[in-house]
Write a structure and sequence with these properties.
Order of helices and strands: HEEEEEEEHHHHHHEEE
Number of domains: 2
Helix content: 55-70%
Structural class: alpha+beta
Distance between the termini: 69 Å
Strand content: 5-15%
Length: 347
């Protein structure tokens, strides 16, 4: 069990170790960039006065920086840490999303989603038919909560570009197909981890509860909401109200099942996991279903065109058909219907 906690802690230590701090160059006019922290180290380039560099660490008077997608070193005495002055006003929603959707941030979020999904998959394989306990249980719950939170941030911030990895224009057709199947299994893994994590919280809290109402209300609200949007928009508030009532009842059922033997704290934890897990799972499931529908439409269209092409390739439409049921290719009369076809058509 301890190895999963070790893996979890080690991963976060790696993230902390790669943290960067912004510094401003004070050397005028330029500051030399070298391959390692020595004055005689090979020169890689220059940074200029007032430039901003990202510093990973400072040791023996030399700062390790990011330079041309690699690490390099500059003299630390010509750097000044940039002070971040917080304004009294609250940051706007636009500035937050513009920051989170930057290239670096979206790449980091995607990386974390992949890593956490792999760890949860490993825990699922370790679980088999028995619920997790001890350190593995705690690690699984924490990682699932973090994964769900990151997925929600990623989907909301990326908006319509959340599934860019399944876009042929951006990654090509081969990677689109590969990523589609990987995404499909990731969705399946997420759903299984969601249910199993809820069951394990109940098991480790010495309680149980029925989650059928909450789960089916998500599916029902999504389906009815989609239909009502196009057919009967007036019903949307009623669908939303019914959905909220079902979720409140589900939360009450969780408290009734956990509090008697597990206490209020574990019940609140279970409700939190249920809410954040439901939202993240539904979000990624909606995006996958949208891709699945597009894939099915493309498949159906290709099948229709393929059938229509077969239908046009008949003896009556063939270049070798002279008339009077005579075939110039075989130099013989057609034996059968003019709706027949062969492999020697020329149109």
């Amino acid at each position: 069990m301890k190895k999963y906690l070790y893996l979890f802690v080690s991963f976060f230590i790696c993230i902390i170790c790669t943290a960067q701090t912004a510094y401003e160059v004070t050397a005028n006019p330029v500051l030399n960039v070298r391959s390692y922290g020595k004055a005689k180290a090979p020169l890689l380039g220059k940074v200029y006065y007032n430039d901003t560099v990202q510093v990973y660490e400072i040791s023996n008077g030399w700062a390790k920086i990011k330079y041309n997608d690699d690490y390099a070193y500059v003299s630390a005495k010509y750097l000044k840490e940039i002070e971040i002055i917080e304004e009294a006003t609250q940051p706007t929603e636009e500035s937050f999303f513009s920051m989170i959707t930057s290239k670096g941030s979206s790449s980091l979020l995607m990386f974390l989603i992949i890593v956490f999904s792999i760890i949860l998959f490993m825990l699922r394989m370790h679980r088999k038919d028995d619920p997790l306990e001890g350190g593995a249980y705690i690690a699984n719950m924490i990682i699932f909560i973090l994964l769900s939170a990151i997925e929600i941030i990623y989907v909301i911030s990326m908006k319509n570009d959340s599934t860019w990895f399944c876009s042929p224009n951006k990654v090509g057709w081969i990677w689109t197909i590969i990523n589609f199947f990987i995404f499909g299994y990731a969705v399946f893994n997420q759903i299984m981890c969601f249910f199993e994590t809820l069951d394990e919280i109940a098991y480790n809290s010495y309680g149980s509860f029925d989650k059928t109402l909450g789960i089916f209300s998500w599916a029902g609200a999504a389906a009815l909401g989609l239909l009502s949007t196009f057919l009967f928009p007036v019903a949307l508030p009623f669908i939303g109200g019914a959905f909220v009532i079902c979720q409140i009842i589900q939360i009450v059922l969780i408290f009734r099942g956990i509090v008697p033997d597990g206490g209020w704290l574990r019940a609140i934890l279970c409700v939190f996991v249920y809410i954040i897990g439901s939202i993240s799972t539904v979000l990624i499931l909606i995006h996958f279903i949208a891709l699945l529908i597009v894939a099915l439409i493309v498949f159906v269209v290709l099948a229709i065109f393929s059938q229509s092409d077969t239908k046009t390739r008949k003896c009556r439409n063939c270049h070798y058909y002279r008339g009077n049921s005579y075939c110039d290719y075989y130099n013989n009369y057609i034996d059968g219907s003019l709706d027949d076809s062969c492999n020697n058509h020329s149109f």
